[in-house]
Amino acid sequence: xxxxxxxxxxxxxxxxxxxxxxxxxxxxxxxxxxxxxxxxxxxxxxxxxxxxxxxxxxxxxxxxxxxxxxxxxxxxxxxxxxxxxxxxxxxxxxxxxxxxxxxxxxxxxxxxxxxxxxxxxxxxxxxxxxxxxxxxxxxxxxxxxxxxxxxxxxxxxxxxxxxxxxxxxxxxxxxxxxxxxxxxxxxxxxxxxxxxxxxxxxxxxxxxxxx
Length: 211
What we know:
Layout: E1 2-7, H1 14-25, E2 28-30, H2 40-45, H3 47-68, E3 78-81, H4 88-95, H5 98-111, E4 120-125, H6 128-138, H7 148-164, E5 170-174, H8 184-195, E6 201-204
Parallel strand pairs: 1-3, 1-4, 2-3, 4-5, 5-6
Helix pairs in contact: 3-4, 3-5
């Protein structure tokens, strides 16, 4: 199974790229169950009191999706996922207290044992102000209360995570001048870079101007 994961902070364009990539490859698309989390709107309004419930729901939902990818009939398929299971720990370390994190870690170590490893991870980056503008543009109700400082902390946590991640090849992409939705040229250039990433950590700076 060829397994491609798209990652990056909130608002960077993970799902949009995953959809384009799955269409281009004729691949199975796996999308994160974000809006189904019943605790998410409460979390953005009161992170301290709702972080653990929110995190555990995401962890178990992601685990269920990932386990389904181990079905024998998917052995020869290409799969594109708009998240990386391992990134769950990025949010956990950012949002949970010491005691909550200890509980979370015990559950994580149990459920992470049979998760498929990606063939390549595409890590999308953008400046905080760009992320905030994109979040505002897509106008999800539960994201209206997001604190800009939280987005800044999250972006830093993602950068730190992927500077040390070595479980799969990583393509790091600056998305600020890249429009892989409207520009076929931008998308095809990025697609070639993804296809050529077979080892290590690579950096991709787009040639197009985007929007």
